[in-house]
User: Fold these one by one.
Assistant:
Number 1:
Amino acid sequence: TPSAVAKATGLHERWVREWMYQQCSCQVLQRHADVGPEASFGITESMYTVLKDQENPHYSCGLLSGFPFIMERVVKLPQCFSTGEGFSYDDGGVNVATAIERQHVKDFKHFLVQKVLPKVKGGSLVELLRSGAKVKVAEIGCGAGGALVALKKHFPNIELHGFETSQHALQRSRFNLTAAGLLESVQLHDVMLHPDALAENGPYDFVLCFDVLHDAPYPNKLMSSVRKVIANNGCWLVVDIATCDEKPVDMVHKGGKASMYFSMSLCLCMSSGLSAPGGLGLGTLGFTKKVAKSLSVKAGWSKMTKFEVPVLPTNSFFVFYP
């Protein structure tokens, strides 16, 4: 009931009551039998799974939880339209970083090692990572460290490096690695302080980027930088947002899904890609197969393959070979 929720949370009952009415009208809550003079509500198991259970593979509310903070950027959009300049992820504060972190919990815990990596190099990559050989791995744009934790737990013998520019994300990464007891066994690099860290610690047998390229101001430079540090028999896995093969405009007929992505792009992804002088500003749906191929050829990569993972339908998976 509204009064029970208000008492448990210390919030004002009238506001809670109106909010619960709104949530019920959106079918997030279900109305139950009245308790005395009060309406009573509950959340279904399926809705709880989608909105609350971060460990569940079907959890989908991570990024949505950051919308209130992302929407603060809307008032700044006229400035962006006038100047052509965007805002970095750190400009959104720590709440944006934690929202992205929550969104990817299930991806790294349930799918990265179990479903994605076995598709790389016909499964031989997993064999290499599991071997006793000294294998050097880098994640570029490691964010809050979720993939770092998953990789080190499953493949404890690898030498693992994480590279990040966001100070909020680095803070979360240190916290999560410490909580997992892995801070001393993973090498974190603040690229803003040490811009040459990637080159200084290579070459790498395997490099990972998870939802990074479309956000990067200079994905072309990143393509070249990774090409220079990849081992002769190594590979680079780029996980990005699933889009069309040719041009982002080809996605406009996708309706609500495309509308959400283009909205996110204006407030986050394209904004990040234009947050540095001369940034390419690919946008959420901008890392198409055509763009990936063009950038990789110019950077000197000899081969690109692409695959899909059914349990991760919002992503596409590219593998680049030296």
Note: The two ends are 61 Å apart (CA to CA).
Number 2:
Amino acid sequence: QGHTPRSISDSLLYFNSKHNKKSKPENISKSTEEIVAELEGMLVQPQELEKEGYPTKKGSEANKAQSTSLTPTDISTTSFEDATALVEKIGFRTEKQDDDDDQLYVSTATSADTTESSSQSDQPPRVFGMDCEMVRTSAGRELARITMVQFQSFQQDGNTMTTTTIMDELVKPNKTVLDYLTRHSGMSPKVLDPVTTRLAQIQVALLRFLRPNDILVGHSLENDLKATHLLHPRVIDTALLFRASNKRTKFSLKHLSAYLLQKKIQTGSHCSEEDASIALELAIRRAWFGESFQVPSGDDRRSLFEGLSAARIMFAGPADWLHSHITNNSNGIHALNYDDVPKCKKAVLAWQSSP
């Protein structure tokens, strides 16, 4: 059914999006290869990665090469001890890493002169949506859940994206949890206490699966890469991709999803699978529709009242709400004052029976 606005603010928000209307699909046809090629042009550039706070190797670690051969395998087949030993062998610290954070980072970028790296670069890039949930510990925010969703295809009607969830793992923090941040993360002692998977195992699994030329998509992805202690050179950040025209304002994923996709998310605690899929869909649709798939600037928006001035519309609410939201507009808009639910019902019935 799509998202139905629940307030006048929501109505104003969703009113003018040309891409969230159930109209005849635009005559666009792109292959998966063409979509990926468009995505290549959306990658965050190295200088902007640093500016936006993405993790970077510490100066003394810059020349440390990662040449260990890793064979894809399931997380459960790699013990915490083996994963820790591997991370200690190839890991490094990053610039601005907190002193209390003793977990090393790893990078998907292998040595440029290795046979493995050469063979991987010959394979077409894959595209993944990524999102993490975190809890607060003495080391800051630590990973508690990670989800990765792989893009498969986007149908020619421009409305159907096919994906596969390739990773959805709960992770036990290394440090004692001080705050589960349940309201946002959905984590709790009941959820995390039985978990045995640790961050090092996630890092090894990511290294075994991701290729350096793969594309990671996420919203404010620097936070997810910090949580996973992972460096990856090719990312698309929807918080940057869909910035306002002033290039300073970043829209929340919730706002972008509601306005551009007409999907309401994060109504309770966040779901990393949902957020990863939404970020991925936003990027794919941008590749499909082009730069017109964007939240318009303030000058481009029409108000709800301009668009609906010819309709017979009624707004009901308390006097102070009406005063704040309903001003002198078209006579087609009726404002009914009520102070409690029974009076609201009477007001609406009276309005319906009026000529």
Note: The chain has 15 helices and ten strands.
